[in-house]
Amino acid sequence: MKIIDIKNWKRRVPYENFIKYSNPVFSLSTRLDVTQLYNLCKRRNTSFFTDFLYIVMKSINETEEFRLRICRGEVVLYDKVKPSFIVLTDDGVIAPCRVDMNDDYRQFYAEARAQTELVKNGGNAYPFSADGDNDCCYISCMPWTDLTAINNPYNYSDADSTSIPRLAWSKCVDENGRKKMTMDIAAHHALIDGEPVCRAFNLIQKYLDDAEEILR
Questions:
Q1: In sequence order, what are the residues at sequence separation of 6 or more whose Cβ sits closer than 8 angstroms to the Cβ of residue 81?
Q2: What is the mean pLDDT of residues 33-44?
Q3: Can you count the helices (H) and strands (E) in the chain?
Q4: According to DSSP H, which parts of the chain are helical?
């Protein structure tokens, strides 16, 4: 983890502007082509959610701006951020689940599936709120409908938690012979602008198109 010297930071001016906003969060949505990944998961009988999660977090970690956070009044850059995703338990209640971001796909997949099943069955759920533990991205998946946008809940009085990006995606649907899916990214404008978000979207699509190589 590296503490950013805000006075000498290249984005000091936009940071000092947007940090004053009562609502500093913006979001962008895009339509992703997930055909290659969908077919690969069917062929391998693997979890589409977990495989997509790996591709997303690999892309996020390779986009430096998404590793920036506000921590107790300072801006820090994490070496790596992990997914904190929602699991629907067998009781029909949502619960948070976290796994470390492992560059090794197979190890990540095994851990993510094990933790998902544990939480789904009422096991050790990570707290919804954890002070100082913001080296993550909040992730939601809503596979029940084809969304076009989403509005996330925030506690804007808590700059630390507000600085954690929110990633969400919806149902995978047929569209002109391809499998398509909407994904939304919400981020703190003091830390991230539109260009890095679009860069992350483009990287996600690149890895989706090359899913068989990425998920080895």
A1: 57, 60, 61, 66, 67, 101, 135, 136, 137
A2: 98
A3: 7, 10
A4: 12-18, 35-44, 48-61, 105-120, 159-162, 194-209, 211-214
201 vs 182: CA distance, rounded Å = 11
Query: Angle, nearest 10°, between helix axes 194-209 and 48-61?
Result: 130
**Sheet harboring 2-3: ordered strands across?**
2-3, 74-77, 68-71
CA gap 53, 58 in Å, rounded: 8
Task: Look up tokens 């992703």; give the residue.
Answer: 32
Rounded to whole angstroms, the Cα distance separating 35 from 173 reads 10
Provide the 10 A C-beta neighbour count for residue 13.
9
User: Tokens 């990287």 — which residue?
Assistant: 203
- Six-digit token pair at 12? 């000091």
Bridge pairing between strands 136-142 and 173-175: unpaired
Largest CA distance in the chain: 52
202/151 Cα distance (integer angstroms): 22
pLDDT tens per residue, range 11-20: 999 999 999 9
* 69 phi/psi in degrees, rounded to 5: -145, 160
Q: Is the pLDDT of residue 127 over 90?
A: no
